[in-house]
Amino acid sequence: MTVRTRFAPSPTGFLHIGGVRTALFNWLYARQHGGQFLLRVDDTDQQRNVEEALAPILHGFEWLGLDWDEGPVSSVAEGAGDKQSKGDFGPYFQSQRGEHYAAAVDQLLASGAAYRDYARPEEVQAEREAAEKAKESFVYSRQWRAETDADRARFEAEGREAVVRLLMPREGTLVLNDLVRGEVRFDWAREQDHVIQRADGSPIYHLATVVDDELMKISHVIRAEEHLSNTPRQVFIAEALGYTPPQFAHLPYVAEPGSKNKLSKRKLDKYLKNRDFAALNEKGQQIAARLGLETSAETFNPVIVDFYEQVGFLPEAILNYLLLLGWSLDDSREEFTVPEMIEHFSLGRVNKAPASFDPAKLLAFQDRAMQQVPAKQKTPRCLEMLKAAGLVSDPPACDTGPVVAGIVQAASDRLKVYGDILDYDDFFTADDQLAYDEKTWQKRMVKPDDAGPLLAKYREVLAKTPDASAEELEAGLKAFCESEGIGIGQIIHALRVATTGKGVGFGMFETLQLLGHERRLARIDHALARLSG
Ligand code: GLU
What we know:
With 533 residues, the chain is α/β, with parallel strands linked by helices.
């Protein structure tokens, strides 16, 4: 059997990290078995602009490297297994596949597994309420079911419209062997005659999904737990159409930080009370603000994948973190490269219990992954960030490439996400436009009486060493302090705020070296001028 999996997003306008976890498990399972992974857009029910609502989802897939294997340009029969380069085909769209669903409805009507139902919505609702009042479970009376053409004519003469409902069994049990949850039993009596086609002829998700899973030869349906309760009706549809249902694996929720409830992008206010979540969100917001991004909580928050890309996380860190949200190899190993994920993943080791989203752990994964990226490889993405933030002026204030490389080197593990490069914005500012942190300026330059004179004196020493390395600059400053009979602390803070505008940063001498001779002198001159008013 060829393993074929699919991810079936609804075009909601954003990619939820729980959705990515589902997609990742599908993708890994297909890759591990040399099978295919498909992307299929559940857009039978969409009022909005699907293309627009899908764009962030496709973009997220691309960023994460989750590629799919076929799409509408290759029919299932010819295309299966023929890997084409991505871009040759888009995902499947259910909205473009109506003929298949209509044919399936006809088949279900013809076999008697479904019926046309002419009840008005309020009539069904009245039955439902009556059952509730009587404290009985609701069982539809089927009194507007059209069994014959004469029934149809009569109902239509009353101005009624038909939906198509499943004629569900009312006794017996469905035993489902779920690959994650094990044996799950469903009493048919608890199921309803679910609608599969609306009065306007459009198909309902359950029908479309079963038909597509069959036509696309999906072997394993790996999806969120919330669909477990939909499975009986889907199995009913599949069997009534003569299909062999796929194997099911229902994944536990990705839960909220510190609780077992499903993680939702609508409950941000609640999550922001969690310190780690708030810290992650804050970090993202700060970077986004520098990038001038639109940061409404609706579209930009740690529940949505886009957040991580914008802020400059590594896709491999996100994938590694999501892998462990509900799956483990053993109780200890946490680090997996993508090929290792493909090698080791198994549905059998997916937990049944929900796994809570843990922002601190995600940051730790990112931190570790970032430290493993060679400094040289970090430069291009940092440069992109700086450009996006408008920090690389034209002409640039410095020799940007080498300066970025130098900062990356010097910042080392302080660069936790690519957006952190923006903390070093002062390097890219023209020397006469440096913004000074006013509190630090007051404390380090204005308050100590000797800050100005010492800095002016040191400037003359510095002026004589144009080619000094960081080590030589350090030795030079130490010698200066000795000859002045001062501690290094008496000048170095003033020197930092004068040359960077800030109170913190990485090594002072690396900073001076990176600025270069002209710029460090110019900055000291500007600071001294500012000090003297
Ligand atoms: N569109 C559904 C969802 O996003 C897909 C469910 C399925 O995989 O069958 O939850």
